[in-house]
Design brief:
single chain; 312 residues; 6-stranded mixed beta sheet; 5-stranded antiparallel beta sheet; 11 helices
Length: 312
């Protein structure tokens, strides 16, 4: 696979009231052509700042990067010519019909005049808004506006689409519809998708590789399957007494990574199936095993463990 986004020590520092705030701190990231890449992190972790630097809309404090082969600092205009961006908040001219809005933005993007009409109709067909081509945008629902925003960037026929919290405020039907559109664009047109979100279920349903960002720093990058494998085996234990001594003895097992107590159960993450060893420990303490089973870990648990919190 060839890289379509690359950064090297990309950093953005703000100074607020005498304090230094590292919005993005030494980011080294590679996204490959044709990927559905999820950029995941809490609000305020630096996700939007990253996107704005990649698009050349704000300048990094240090470091750099390339998008679609173009330098994000020296060739930012070229970057924007081959990319599309849907921010969390966007707007159209409410009283103008969908067609006129898209035609206006097409001209701003330098689309050749005799191609504008065909591109608009093609894009509206892709996002299933052809029947609304002459309707004023003020009559559009939130979901329709989101699809119109997608049509607006499709007119450029971009190589990469950046999405910042793309389904915020959408109802379940509109959310599912938008996800399907994103997957279709990736599969049919090989458009690379860079999706920024703080919602785990969002990236899990769309993306095939994920980067976790926290306090401006990239703390982990892998496929969903890779994260699950790193989590190892998840074992659930219920016993007649989950004493501190029992927990310490289980934690001391060579193949055990972490142990949590939650809702009257022990949640054990291990590299191997250590249920026999756990059963022996419980018995040695004069207690009885009530439940001892394996469950697959969830992406939510991966997220909390990456950030040092408790899974489950």
């Amino acid at each position: 696979m060839s890289a379509i986004i690359e950064t090297e020590n990309l950093t953005k520092i703000y100074h607020v009231d005498g304090r230094e705030i590292r919005a993005v701190d030494g980011l080294n990231l590679t996204v490959y052509e044709g990927e559905l890449f999820g950029y995941l992190g809490p609000n305020g972790s630096g996700k939007t700042t990253t996107i704005l630097m990649l698009l050349g809309l704000i300048s990094p404090t240090s470091g750099g990067g390339r998008v679609a082969g173009f330098d994000i600092i020296r060739e930012s205009k070229a970057v924007r010519s081959v990319t599309g961006f849907i921010p969390e908040k966007f707007s159209f001219y409410e009283d103008l019909p969908a067609y006129d809005n898209l035609a206006y933005f097409a001209k701003l993007n330098g689309i050749v005049k005799n191609e504008i009409d065909d591109r608009i109709k093609w894009a509206l067909n892709i996002v299933e808004l052809s029947d609304w081509i002459n309707a004023p945008v003020k009559t559009f629902s939130r979901g329709m506006r989101q699809r119109l925003a997608l049509a607006n960037i499709l007119i450029k026929k971009p190589k990469i689409i950046f999405l910042d919290e793309p389904t915020a405020g959408l109802d379940p039907y509109a959310t599912a519809n938008f996800r399907s559109l994103i997957k279709r664009l990736n599969e049919e047109f090989n458009i690379t998708i860079f999706l920024s979100s703080h919602m785990l279920h969002e990236v899990r349903q769309i993306c095939n590789r994920i980067g976790f960002l926290n306090k401006g720093r990239l703390v982990a990058v892998d496929t969903i399957e890779g994260f699950m494998e790193k989590m190892g085996i998840k074992i659930i234990l219920e016993a007649t007494n989950l004493s501190d001594k029992l927990i310490k003895l289980i934690e001391a097992l060579d193949d055990v990574n972490r142990v949590f107590k939650s809702n009257g159960e022990l949640i054990i993450y291990a590299r191997e199936d250590v249920r026999l060893d756990i059963s022996k420990i419980v018995t040695s303490l004069g207690e009885h095993v009530l439940t001892l089973k394996i469950e697959p870990p969830t992406l939510e648990e991966v997220f909390f463990l990456v950030y040092g919190g408790e899974g489950r």
